[in-house]
Write a structure and sequence with these properties.
This protein has about 260 residues and is α/β, with parallel strands linked by helices. The protein contains ten helices and six strands; from the N terminus they run αααβαβββββαααααα. The protein folds into two domains: about 140 residues, Cyclin A, domain 1 (Orthogonal Bundle); about 90 residues, Collagenase (Catalytic Domain) (3-Layer(aba) Sandwich). The strands form two sheets. It has a four-stranded mixed sheet, covered by helices on one side. Helix 4 links the parallel strand 1 and strand 2.
Length: about 260
């Protein structure tokens, strides 16, 4: 069904209709979408269809791209730009989906000029000006680890250059305020990792400021209350940048009465 979207749009035919049962089944595997308002969830569905019409998907290692995979990735990739717009993803079209983690050959030159080659096992990677590579594990992943959101946060970061943790900010935001929030948070996390302490974010965020932004973005959408408690200034900056407040939605869900409580 979804593979015909571009053809239909090119012929100016009506947008394909995705059954609610299919949306509901896919979204049930993405519980953090419940932090959105009803109107935002409906807007996200529409944006996901626009995303699918704009990008080209390829299954690697024989992976068959089902409607569930395509919609699942599109929903997650569209979430960060729900209030930014798909134009933030301009300049590239390819998304390569692997059936699990995969290996990328690396080559590094040390200070003596010696080239070291090795295989890097990864879950995803975003290439500047090129495609996004993501692994797919049937839509399931540990809470707070979201490969799709992570890699598409890198794409937002790369829109104004390298992935350095400073994406292009809207006019309402200040680069100085961004740095004042992110720099001490990154340094704090690095110190916690060095001291082998428990961290509110995946320790991988200590790799560099670009990874900190991507990991913090994962947490912003998946475990927003935890991020807000640990790094409130970072949460506030991401709230302004993404134009969403998922922690409020999460708190609202937790405050809802349990319909089964007291039942006999």
């Amino acid at each position: 069904m979804l593979k015909r979207i571009k053809k239909w749009l090119g012929l100016e035919m009506p947008r394909p209709v995705v059954p609610n049962e299919l949306w509901d089944r896919i979204e049930s595997g993405l519980p953090f979408l419940a932090f959105l308002t009803v109107s935002d969830r409906l807007r996200l569905r529409e944006l996901a269809l626009d995303f699918l019409a704009d990008k080209e998907f390829h299954g690697a290692q024989g992976l068959e791209l089902t409607d569930e995979i395509l919609l699942g990735i599109a929903l997650q990739a569209s979430l960060p730009v729900l209030n930014i717009g798909l134009e933030a993803y301009h300049g590239w079209v390819g998304i390569i989906v692997y059936p699990g983690d995969f290996v990328i050959p690396r080559h590094e030159v040390d200070e003596a000029g010696v080239v070291h080659s090795y295989d890097d096992e990864v879950l995803g990677e975003a290439w500047a000006g090129g495609p996004v590579l993501v692994s797919w594990f049937g839509g399931h992943h540990p809470i707070g680890v979201n490969v799709v959101i992570h890699e598409f946060a890198h794409k937002l970061d790369m829109a104004n250059g390298e992935a350095d943790g400073f994406p292009a900010l809207p006019a309402r935001m200040s680069r100085r305020d961004w740095a004042a929030a992110f720099t001490p948070a990154y340094e704090k996390l690095c110190a916690q990792v060095d001291a082998d302490e428990m961290t509110a974010l995946d320790p991988y965020a200590s790799e560099n400021p670009g990874e900190f932004f991507a990991v913090a973005s994962e947490a912003f959408f998946e475990t927003p209350g935890q991020l807000r408690d640990a790094f409130p200034a970072v949460y506030d900056q991401l709230k302004s940048y993404y134009g969403l407040d998922p922690a409020a939605g999460e708190a609202g869900l937790r405050a809802e009465p349990d319909p089964h409580r007291g039942a006999t």
